Amino acid sequence: MGQRTTYCNISLMLLFIGGYLCAHDSTVKTVEEQLNGKISHISNLTINIECNPRQVIKDIKQDLFLLFYKIPDIPIRQYSRDLAKSIYDLKYHIGGGIAVAIYLLLIYEVLKGNSCFSSRDSWAMWKYEIPLDELLAMPAHVLSHDLLLEIQRRYTSVDAPADFVSSLVAFMKDIDKEVAEVKYYSNLVIWLKKLRISILFPIRHKLFAMAPERLSRLSYVRNVFLTWAAQYKMDQNKRCCI
Fold it and tell me: For residue 151, which of 11, 18, 179, 186 sits 20 to 30 Å off, Cα-Cα?
């Protein structure tokens, strides 16, 4: 009798547990179905974000205004006074630095002048074996032939050996540049001598002493070329007229 009662109790307990599990399982399935429906519904949503340029610009202006509004007023006068005081305190250092910079610049210019006056390829050295007075006494048409040959020799390009005019243009640019350089470096040395500081610079005085002769030679060579160019244009014009 006791065993039957026990079996009945166990049976009832198993039935109860089975019913609970079935009910729980159906509840879980129902929740899963609801969630799946909601997820599928959310996945079908379309997110549409509209960007308004005017609103963006307005927001940026507002942010910048707030940024600068928070910055305190800059004491310009105080900074100016501090800067002036710092410069005044360092006036000797600043003055010394400027003086050294100017001195180095002048040394560089003097060295360039030495190089310019010692160049053997300059047009002032053309026909240098002929004394200046003899060179000036020679007629222009006598030297023009030799000058044109020298111009073509120096400026003829390998890429365009038959180009005649480009060589003449290059010659005029170089000789004008050389005249300007001789005048510049000559005046530089003259001013250094006037200031009585020429001894501080590596000036090759023998070369700079030839500046007037170099200018005379350059001027004469330039005039020889211009005389030939004028005659050449007249001859070409006569041929065209004929």
Answer: 186
Within a domain: residue 72? Answer: no
Span 13-55, pLDDT tens digits:
544 445 544 444 444 444 445 545 544 444 444 444 455 667 7
Tens of pLDDT along 103-162? 999 999 999 999 999 988 899 999 989 998 998 888 888 899 999 999 999 998 778 777
**Which residue bears the tokens 């079996």?**
7
pTM of the model: 0.63
Does residue 164 fall inside a structural domain? yes
Beta strands in 141-189 (DSSP E): none
The answer to the question of residue 206 being in a domain is yes
Looking at the 3D structure of the chain, how many domains does it have?
1
Handedness of CA 26, 31, 35, 38 (dihedral sign): positive
Q: How big, in percent rounded to 5, are the helix, strand and coil portions of the chain? A: 80, 0, 20
26 lies in some domain:
no
